[in-house]
Amino acid sequence: MSDPVLNIRDLKLAFRKGRQVTEVLHGISLHVNAGEKVALVGESGSGKSVTAQLALGRLQQERGTLIEGLVQVAGIDATRDPRALARVRGHRVTMIFQDPTSALNPVFRIGEIFAQVLRAGGRHVSDAEARATAEAALAEVHIPDPARALASYPFQLSGGMNQRVMIAMALVNEPELLLADEPGTALDVTVQAQTLKLMDEMVTKKQAAVLFISHNLSVVREFADRVYVIYRGKLVEHGRVDQLFGNPRHPYTRALLAAAPKLVGGGLPDLPEHEPAFRDPLIVHEGCGEPEELRT
């Protein structure tokens, strides 16, 4: 069996400010194999997102950050060689963030951002080649008019469309590992479900390994192969989805399951034929004061 794409062993994280040291992670150990979808579940503040940030190499060189243990990403020791990880970030390891609107630079058109993503992944492409590749990637995530989307600024697209753009960007360079930090949380519940279903389809097609950060157990049950449960910076339970949902052993896991809304029906809804894609900031409903797209 090949080595895991993500291998975390006895990871401890603390932040120092002056004489005060705040411990955040307490000996985390987890792994994600090639092509596997693994969820890390816990409430806000439990340590989920900082674990993903460490795997991306974004905290290692921050002043006051104290790290012990191993974080190995695509064979690179991210704790000891963050510069090597930086060289593969954007193609061998990528990330989808919670809020697509804040993750996309509002002063650049989608096409310009997409070209930067392609070149960060080591592709030496002309502007025309970048545009063609980006259009094909956006078509894969069911954006109805890719050319128009590429010519738009992020604020001219709906939240759902921006999240689809983020999925396309994260997967266009065919990464070995995708870190998904609660994607869609900032969106309407229905659009979030559609987006997560699309991401599931795309990572399966691209055969990317995924570490899926979430507090939504209903979504995790649909999406993941295995689940780790984190509580106050410690892993308290781990198992396959059917095992963990069928026979939770830790009181915290049972409490999370008891708190989850009970869904009725056949799971995540199908993608709509025509989702409203483009926002005209000048179109406002009378008496509302909100752009038309915001009401969907």
Structural class: alpha/beta
Number of strands: 10
Low-pLDDT runs? 271-296
Radius of gyration: 20 Å
Mean pLDDT figure: 83
Can you describe this structure?
The protein has 296 residues and is of the alpha/beta class. The protein is 35% helix and 23% strand. It has a six-stranded mixed β-sheet with strand order 6-7-8-3-9-10, with helices on both faces. A four-stranded antiparallel β-sheet has the order 2-1-4-5, with helices on one face. β9 (226-231) and β10 (234-240) form a beta hairpin.
Quick structural overview:
The chain is α/β, with parallel strands linked by helices and 296 residues long. The protein contains 11 helices and 10 strands.
SSE arrangement:
Elements: E1 6-17, E2 20-32, E3 37-41, H1 48-56, E4 65-73, E5 76-77, H2 82-88, E6 93-96, H3 100-103, H4 110-120, H5 127-140, H6 146-150, H7 159-171, E7 177-181, H8 189-206, E8 209-214, H9 217-223, E9 226-231, E10 234-240, H10 241-246, H11 251-259
Helix pairs in contact: 4-5, 5-7, 7-8
